[in-house]
Amino acid sequence: MLFLIFFVICFLASVTGAVCGIGGGVIIKPVLDAFHIMDVSSISFLSGCTVLSMTAYSVLRSRIGGESGVDRKTGFPLAVGAALGGLAGKWMFSFVSSLSPDRNRVGAVQAACLLAVTLGTLLYTVSKEKIATKNIKNPAACSVIGLFLGILSSFLGIGGGPINLVVLFYFFSMSTKAAAETSLYIILFSQAASLLSSLASANIPAFQTAVLLCMVAGGITGGIAGRTLNKKITDRTVDRLFIGLMVVIILINNYNIIIYLG
């Protein structure tokens, strides 16, 4: 029954993540935190692996099918910066974890940061029609922006999350679907770098292999379903789904902060 719960959570999160371009980790991480069935470092690692599997499928499937809408001139520097940011975010998480033996406090810090990011994202999304956007092309600037996104995603254990879309909307004037696809491309690089870093340093938390397999299976099948669904809905529908999702994530993170500090 427990394995089924892991699969369903990851499947539904990955469907939504593939449609909205948020990777799914922004849902998986706080939901599993709320269940309190695993250490926060284990949840962060497993969430990252699940997001990596989903984004790898989505990005490779788009490439193979010749359907990719990612602009390589901006997307590649963003992805390289995100990969470096993924390594930096991993180090930051280890550093914060070393400051306190109380894992609940570490979880509370992650939940509070994610709450702030999600709330800011929601406010921007609601008002984005009134905000003038930019159209950055400079590769160095793209790399710096990618670095910032990679640090956030790796530190929070969410893969990429809603902040990716806001940054792509504002700095690159992307449409909702183009931003979603570029976001998944960035997430793939940052999560791959984070995982390779964990493997190289043997800094892998304890978990059951069966749990990892269930979560990855949920991530890949969710990515398949989400990619299919994304082709059938409009940008406006994606925006509505995204806003509703932000509200749910905000509520879950408020709950997690109270529980961790309670």
Describe this structure in words.
The protein has 262 residues and is an all-alpha fold. It has one domain (2-261). Helices cover 81% and strands 0% of the residues. It has helices at residues 2-20, 25-35, 40-64, 72-99, 103-127, 139-156, 162-172, 176-201, 209-230, 235-261. The model has no long low-confidence stretch (mean pLDDT 84).
Mean pLDDT across all amino acids: 84
Approximate strand percentage: under 5%
Distance between the termini: 28 Å
Share in helix: over 70%
Q: What is the number of helical segments per DSSP (H or I, 4+ residues)? A: 10
| Class by SSE composition | mainly alpha
Tally of extended strands?
0
What is the number of independent domains? 1
Q: What's the helix-strand series? A: HHHHHHHHHH
Which term fits the overall shape? globular
Ranges where pLDDT stays below 50 over 5 or more residues in a row are: none
Rg from C-alpha positions?
A: 17 Å
Largest sheet descriptor: none
Comma- or semicolon-separated keywords:
mainly alpha, 10 helices, globular
Describe the structure concisely for a colleague.
The protein is an all-alpha fold.
What is the fold's blueprint, element by element?
Layout: H1 2-20, H2 25-35, H3 40-64, H4 72-99, H5 103-127, H6 139-156, H7 162-172, H8 176-201, H9 209-230, H10 235-261
